[in-house]
């Protein structure tokens, strides 16, 4: 028996699919997965359906793998890749891969009622799994259905879900993939990791404060504090013995440590709170007094209690969860329901309010530090969360070095990594402490993004960089964001059995190609600094003499404290923390970002939070398009500037090179028609075609145009719904006139048939004998040419497929289906000798008007050629005379090359969705050989036809999990007198016309425009092929 190449395999063994009768090797290509060094497959399942985003019907069939690093979906048909939701891919993850550390929640979805049940982390599932939804920390949702997975692999499905739960939520960090990864060791250039004393020394020397501050080794081998780094910066007069003695008074022994300062006394210091239960405050007083000694004027540090000023971790986590609920939609209906109340729902999340609070506090502290030339002492109970965020934001506002890419990365290393922010707990890399989860790092990146929007030329990096950085925090091939503190990383490196080699995320070339890294570069920053370099003739602004540090000018940076500035702050929101005398202190202009922290000045970071939602993406618009235009504009500016200098023969240096920006690597360079999306490169641009918008398609078989309107799929359905037909019909219903032995309405008794049974219809539409149209009706134009009438003769028969009423064609065996095909051919031959046309058709389902659920079809033979075949005969004949080949044979060749609409094929038959399909899920069944009529089929063609019909009808039943209603019929060369004519222009084909539109209870109606103007459909045939 011929084997199938199923492009979207929806075979279901619940429909009694016999693997012995049809070769199980239906897929043309073996599913393969790309593995990293040290990666191993834990579990896998074949014939899994991956739904497209916000689609319950469109998807791809393939294999699902779970490894010790990722979840990977591999399609069986490589030609289908263009239909997948394409995202930015890197050297670590393929298009349909999900890093296990990125998994946030896994749900079991019941297909029957679409109810979701959250599966427990590290749980053990024993029940049958139908579908799962994987909600990721990057706000993406992946849906996989196992309803088409063969029964022998049901255990594999359970295993794959259990493997997903166990390896996505390991009990300890040592089970993360980074410990198994055997890839190359990272080589980071230009980003200090602050794991050694030399990095701290370079930093304090860069800021010119190495005279007042020194590096302490009191925590060597982490003997004092488990969460502080081995080396850190403290006041120069503070002895290590004093530090060690005072450390016991602070929580987790986290003594006050230096974060940033200038020679004039401006400084930021951070510390944990006094250990609970300790009332002696002398240790804190001693530390504060020594810190005061670093100030030229011996100013006492201003203590800022961050716990009282900022939301706590629980509130931030709750705000984040509400934001996620708003940004992540499971269905299109849910999205549109939320869209009506979008702004109120966004306000209720309080996420932007939290961002505004963080920016406001940081801005006013930065203002205070510079205006008063004072020391800010940031105190937090744990000293590892809010202080990381606020300290980092203060430094970005004050120090332009941290607005460069390398400076920003060093800031994260210094204030977050080295200072022990518990990334493992906050990002929920393990399942041991779920209540410790809180996306503080995302909140920080959001605050930086807000500043980037306000000052687009002041940052070297872009929002693509910030978004990629957030994604990289969930990649377990790098160690940067996997541990709770430097000590955990140190222990992993020192492990004698499985030492962890250094693999930093800042080694971006391990993750992205040059054209992808180019998207990290801000063109506006590049051209502005190129101008500065041209004027100052220096190599790097960040390496200017210290005397220039605070006097430097920036196009968007100005003195926050200049009384003549219209943008100067008008009120003090931290008056209880900052003294009036400090605020009124006059000082020179300084390079500070005048951040607007009011909530009206902030926006939701759509590029990060909504990038996976296709309903909000803008084709040809959004920030990526603005970015690309800026790149091109910068290129033009540099070119024109240098051209002017050459023409004017001035001695001024030309602008620096801006090569490496994205404009030099634009995908549009190769394809000028490429249209970017607002989520590029995560949802990259495509080449738009007419098929993406409303368009007309021509049906050459009927000389008919069809209006296709894909955009209408987004509209909610408020119309009529149909109740699905009941399953499991009674095989012994005495009222069923089609069952064996039943007495029909005309008194005749059916034989006890065992296979097929054909009889004349008791209530036929056509009679064999007909005297004429009747009195008063002319058979010609003698009365009037507008009132024509002709005689009609024929015969109507009923053919039962099977003796059991509960049986349908997809449930029948191949041998039983072959019996049906043989009987069709016999009837076509028998009736065709007498009649011009023999129409075999089957109506299945109540919604199609089928009055009896018993498996049967009808055969109507007529003395005339009906309209549908008459038009087809005319159009095929015209094509044949013009091209010398049958129309449908040429069409078969086109579809076999494109494969855009093919559902399945074998050696003899092709199943496809016609390019010009009228009904939503219409299909056509075609022999690959030139065949005129059913009776011309060879034996092997009938056998493979039975397999094709069984596969197609099984797909239909599985589509909405119902006995799929349809009308089907065969069209071939006319019979009767046509036997004497040349019918080589004909090609045998079967047509299936299902009426269902969106679900089992939503029907497509041919009314209104369809009846009065033109046929219209919403789903494109290319989309239907993937359902």
Characterise the protein shown here:
The chain has 1027 residues and is of the alpha+beta class. It has three domains: 29-169, Pleckstrin-homology domain (PH domain)/Phosphotyrosine-binding domain (PTB) (PH-domain like, Roll), CATH 2.30.29; 197-519, no CATH class; 695-708 and 735-1025, HIT-like (HIT family, subunit A). 29% of the residues lie in helices and 15% in strands. The chain contains 26 helices and 29 strands. The strands form six sheets. The chain has a ten-stranded antiparallel β-sheet, with helices on both faces. Strands 5-4-3-2-9-8-6-7 form an eight-stranded antiparallel β-sheet. A hairpin with a 6-residue loop joins strand 6 and strand 7 (116-118). The longest helix is centred in the middle third of the chain and has 26 residues, at 623-648. It is elongated. The protein starts with a strand and ends with a helix. 45% of the residues are buried.
Quickly describe the structure.
The protein has 3 domains: 29-169, PH-domain like; 197-519, no CATH class; 695-708 and 735-1025, 2-Layer Sandwich (HIT family, subunit A). Helix content is 29%, strand content 15%.
Give the topology.
Elements: E1 5-6, E2 41-51, E3 59-67, E4 70-75, E5 97-99, E6 103-109, E7 116-118, E8 131-136, E9 141-145, H1 154-168, H2 197-206, E10 213-216, E11 232-235, H3 240-247, E12 257-261, E13 267-272, H4 282-292, E14 302-305, H5 306-309, H6 313-327, H7 332-340, H8 342-349, H9 351-372, E15 375-380, H10 386-398, H11 405-417, H12 423-426, H13 440-454, H14 463-472, H15 486-494, H16 514-517, H17 523-536, H18 580-583, H19 606-609, H20 623-648, E16 695-699, E17 704-708, E18 757-760, E19 794-800, H21 814-832, E20 837-844, E21 856-862, H22 867-883, H23 887-898, E22 902-905, E23 909-912, E24 923-927, H24 939-959, E25 966-971, E26 989-993, E27 996-999, E28 1002-1003, H25 1009-1012, E29 1015-1017, H26 1021-1024
Parallel strand pairs: 13-15, 14-15, 17-29
Antiparallel strand pairs: 1-22, 2-3, 2-9, 3-4, 4-5, 6-7, 6-8, 8-9, 10-11, 12-13, 16-17, 18-19, 19-21, 20-21, 20-25, 22-23, 23-24, 24-26, 25-26, 27-28
Helix pairs in contact: 6-8, 9-10, 9-13, 10-11, 10-13, 13-14, 17-20, 21-24
